[in-house]
């Protein structure tokens, strides 16, 4: 009965609110919906136009870094990697050496310290974001294709559990908004399904390019929860689950978001 | 002259008596409800606040709340919504246990104090008209 009242209230409140009635929760996200579809035409155009997409500045910077000799061995990424087409679409992936899942930034970092024997880059610093954007950009348009790797299963399960875990003073889980209430409005913000296909991405809110971990951190701070340090295993586990959940979505990195 | 036992009993009776709720202030309550960083209410709810842009639609309108609920029901729902319905996304504004990974700045603190909840109750009681 209260539900009917709510629907009636929504309908009575005018087209702005009525247009965003609750949808059935997409349990398995059978048809994941990219946040791009719910952006304004202007933002969609900005994302699609390489000369207007601010994220391309990081891609260009990343390309330069990719070709620069680094570290004790003075090798450039490009000395080993000709093309990385499709690679970002398969991350996070299992890393044998650390026997743990690794996200794309972690992999770049690993290559840098192991193969270039260079000092590690700061996790959310500009050079690592730029390299990530350059590598991820080479998967643009390709479907997110998380690896079928049984070694990832425990971390994947932990990632889903973290996604559904209520946390913080406001006691909310990722799923309660991004699964159960996607399409509704939290204040001014349209709640997206929260897919991982656009990272690193340029957010107008940040006025900068940022990683998926930064975005996860934003929500954790928003619900007044402790947020692990960048690079923490918990983030990679959530990233792993998000990749699975959004499998098939076209990679949009570097995406533009409000 | 009261014996010490009777003194203790009298003190206990005082402690166990139901709290006399201080009268809330509706104007202060309105400020709490409409302040995004304080009450957070309009992130999810909408209502008769024409000056407030971008109200949420995750939760029912607050219009008519004062007609649908009395003070005790409002107080109970604000203080511990999830105690009444574990699946509710409405935070339990007066509860500090049953939470996990609370950021240090907020640890052990309710979202609103008892006095602030009374202010919000007093304000919501004034919302008797359906929008």
What does this protein structure show overall?
In chain A, a hairpin with a 4-residue loop joins strand 5 and strand 6. Residues 4-28 of chain A have low confidence and may be disordered. By secondary structure, chain A is mainly alpha-helical. Chain A folds into two domains: 36-48 and 143-257, Cytochrome Bc1 Complex, Chain D, domain 2; 55-137, Cytochrome c-like domain (Cytochrome Bc1 Complex, Chain D, domain 2, Orthogonal Bundle), CATH 1.10.760. Chain A has helices spanning 2-12, 15-18, 41-48, 55-66, 77-80, 104-114, 126-137, 153-164, 174-178, 212-222, 233-245; strands at residues 93-95, 100-102, 185-186, 189-190, 201-203, 208-210, 256-257. In chain A, helix 4 crosses helix 7, helix 6 (104-114) packs across helix 7 and helix 8 packs across helix 11. The radius of gyration of chain A is 19 Å and the shape is globular. Chain B is an all-alpha fold and 131 residues long. Chain B has one domain: Cytochrome c-like domain (Cytochrome Bc1 Complex, Chain D, domain 2). Chain B is built from six helices and no strands. In chain B, helix 2 packs across helix 6 and helix 5 packs across helix 6. The radius of gyration of chain B is 18 Å and the shape is globular. The relative contact order of chain B is 0.20. Chain A binds chain B through residues 2, 5-6, 9-10, 12-13, 17, 20, 165-172, 176-177, 181, 184-188, 191, 220-221, 224-227, and chain B through 36, 40, 42-44, 46, 53-58, 60-61, 63, 82, 89, 91-92, 98-106, 109, 111, 131.
Note the topology:
The complex is a heterodimer of chains A (258) and B (131).
Chain A: H1 2-12, H2 15-18, H3 41-48, H4 55-66, H5 77-80, E1 93-95, E2 100-102, H6 104-114, H7 126-137, H8 153-164, H9 174-178, E3 185-186, E4 189-190, E5 201-203, E6 208-210, H10 212-222, H11 233-245, E7 256-257
Parallel strand pairs in A: 5-7
Antiparallel strand pairs in A: 1-2, 3-4, 5-6
Helix pairs in contact in A: 4-7, 6-7, 8-11
Chain B: H1 4-16, H2 26-34, H3 41-44, H4 65-68, H5 71-84, H6 114-124
Helix pairs in contact in B: 2-6, 5-6
